[in-house]
Amino acid sequence: MATVPTAIHVEVLPARLGDCLLVECQRPDGTTWRMLVDGGPPDTWPLLEARLRRLDPGDRHIDVAVITHIDNDHIGGMLPFLASDLAADVGDFWFNGRPHLPVTGPDRPRSVDQGESLVAALRGSDGDPLAGGPAALASRTRALPWNAAFGGGPVDTGAAGGFVEVAVPGGPTVTVLSPTTKRLTRLADTWSKSLRAALGAPDRDVGLDVLGPLDDLEHLADTRTPQDSSVPNGSSIALLVEHRGASVVLGADAYGGVLAAALQGVARARGDETLSVDAFKLPHHGSEANVVAALLRAAPARHYLVSTNGDVFHHPDDAAVARVVLGAPAGPTLWFNYRTPRTERWADPRLVASHGHHVAFPDPGRADAGAVIDLPARR
How many CB atoms lie within 10 A of CB 219? Predict the structure, then answer.
């Protein structure tokens, strides 16, 4: 029997509480289109570097490297990446730096030349952090492509419900779902404050993770929780990747309402009310403030990916996972990139038998692999 080829290969690397994803699509000519999304916190870099250096030396090209937003658990590992020789093999960096933010208020963006690089900012230098963008991050002597797919402008969907499609010749179609101009404007208003918070320590200490019962998922799913209000999270670059009939949503830390509106916009543009996808990397590490019912209705999936080991904030939240289990199409699979007491509960045989979901954990023999999923081609 013929083997069905893989259309999209996704690796959710073990980046502690952060995100670090590698996405690959095979082109018809046999070459690989490759996207790196975030680098996790700083201590993810050795693992990320090792993973990238395992690639064929003749094919280490990364077509797109996305820095979704300025939180430390997403950008920390990107700093040494940008300073390494591997950065020279990147076709385009997608990142909304200070020059891309709408001009507004006393904290408005200044020119690129006035700023220091993010590397300098993290080392404690004075200046205008992030203004120099990826070119400055890697080196002042070499320029790297920055938002080239967007004419050098912001990665921005415009109004709520908007989206932007980027078609790759012979490769996938990548649709930008977040952020909106409104969210970038909000970031511009609070840039310095948001940056200081992002580059600092988490705003609360690691405490004991108290695990509640999972015997009433309906009650958990109905828990009324405030929606995410973090300004950096609202500026997250979230994407839909589609290739050969397969699809995956990469939710970054985006607001659930923004994602839901954009996914509905895509669906309606295609003559439907919902957009069914193969896989969905849940936003904000499975936070109940981002994984809202409207989002799950907008893009029902067969596979849901969660990127976190539960550090500091004890994600994924039970309410968020309960919403997935109850609201997704029958028999969804939960993919966790860490096996922890919090995630392991969802694999309890009685719970699985009662709700019909499935659970996948990393290969115990490959602790550095995280969650790995292959989405088959349909055409």
Answer: 11
